[in-house]
Amino acid sequence: MVLEFLKNLFKKKKNIAYAKSQSVDLIELKRNPYYIVASVELGNTTTKSIITATNMDTGKTYIVSKYVRMTRDVRKPKKGEKIFGKTLWGVELSREAVAEMVRDVLLESLKKANLTIDDLHFVVRSTGVTAGFASPEEVGEVIIALAQGCMLAGVPPQKMTPAMTKDQLPKPFDKYSFLDKIIFDGAVTGVLPPTGKEVVANEMEGELVTAGVKVGSKWTHVDFRNPCMSIDFGTTLAGRITNDELPYAKVIGNLCGLAGAIADAIARGSGKIDEKTGAVLDLKPDGKANEELAKEYAEKIHKYIDIRKVPEGVNRFGTVPVDVEAAKKAGTTLIGCDVGENGDKLYKLTELGKELVEKSNISTLLSCLDYVMSDVVYRLVELAYKKGLISDRTAVGVTGRAGITGKKPELILEKLEKLNIWDKVEENVVFVEDGLALGASVMARCMNCLGTPKVPIGGNRGGPCILGLRMKWQKERGMIK
């Protein structure tokens, strides 16, 4: 015991690259060239609108305001409304109900920021609600519902579609655009989307979080550009693995399956939250945690967690619709996380959560979640490494509620160190708040060719801006003159 205490006492504290969302006030917002974007997202657990502002001189992105509602509070579909899908927890969704919820969260986020629709330069819509859908294509229905919600709030369609020429951009942002030199060809932060059919239902979410971690990492000492692996721990798992081809990297890996849903299932055993729709977010610590017991139960829980390459012949993994054949053709490896088969053993995690709380308290349960989720990261990275998808040149980025809270960042660094991939783990791993919203701000800029060459987010780690290479690439293909 004494030796362990002394070892911990003299252990050098890791320099955790944690990009906490930075804020900016209204006076500053009006004074400098800030490109203001609303990110509207319908998730399995939360529906949120986050307003971001990017200073076009520095390339730094700030959070202006955030408004979040629990998705379980969406109104029930009315008679005659078509139900197009359900959340992972069985909450039924109609286009009209989603549109009304989206309208409300968007208007509330603007109100909190003392802004109006006129102050927005762009709106990006995304969804994490894919588990209750039958195929990747059906996600289109929720994107339409999100668009309708934005229009109900008063957003004009041109603020949701890219400009075709510099003249169509609001002043003074036209001078920051490169639309006269290049065109938007689908690449976001120097990564080409996989060709052909959609590989996973949450493909766009993976694209946005990768971009968001890239821009968020600018607040840290980690250069998170290609090659990289992004891991988003919302209710469902999203993320990408990219290579280091120039000018555009390719997506060589996609993540899918369950993430925060694992933590929520364990939390429901506490008896303190709703047994069907309760989330970890509803729990509060209640005293000192029993760390040893937390570790012991984390090991028991991991026996039910299945992390592997998604096998052929399945159309869902971890409840998320996948197209394994399309992934194969696109040269993309699908890595999934499940509990049993499509979540059918989640109830076992709830039982273990109940057992743990009966033996200890909520604080021990929350500590157990830190060990469980940090181990999920470890196993995902280990598998990607074994499959040859990442190397010592790859940066790893983690975002989402179930991956960056509590002691998870320090535990993740400790565990990843054991893989011996990098000389210095902390120089290659970054944790980012609000990755999806930050990604929406980047997506809006990429679509309008609004660049910051002095602080590039495309290209490779340690490398320069790729504008010249992109122009050459597009000329060779006859896309520009």
Quaternary state, please?
A: single chain
Radius of gyration: 22 Å
Helix content: 25-40%
Q: Tell me the β content.
A: 15-25%
Give me the secondary-structure category.
alpha/beta
Low-confidence stretches: none
What value does the average pLDDT take? 90
Distance N terminus to C terminus? 71 Å
Number of helices: 14
Strands across the major sheet, in which order?
1-18-17-9-10
Number of strands: 18
Please tell me about this protein's structure.
This protein is α/β, with parallel strands linked by helices and 481 residues long. 34% of the residues lie in helices and 19% in strands. It contains 14 helices and 18 strands. The protein has a five-stranded mixed β-sheet with strand order 1-18-17-9-10. Strands 8, 11, 12, 13 and 16 form a five-stranded mixed β-sheet that branches. Strand 14 and strand 15 form a beta hairpin.
Describe the structure concisely for a colleague.
This protein has helices at 2-10, 26-31, 95-113, 139-152, 203-216, 260-267, 291-302, 324-330, 346-359, 362-386, 401-404, 408-417, 435-447, 467-476; strands at residues 17-19, 34-42, 46-55, 61-70, 83-86, 92-94, 122-127, 191-192, 228-233, 237-238, 240-242, 249-257, 305-309, 316-317, 320-321, 333-339, 395-399, 429-432.
Q: What are the main properties of this structure?
A:
481 residues, alpha/beta, five-stranded mixed sheet
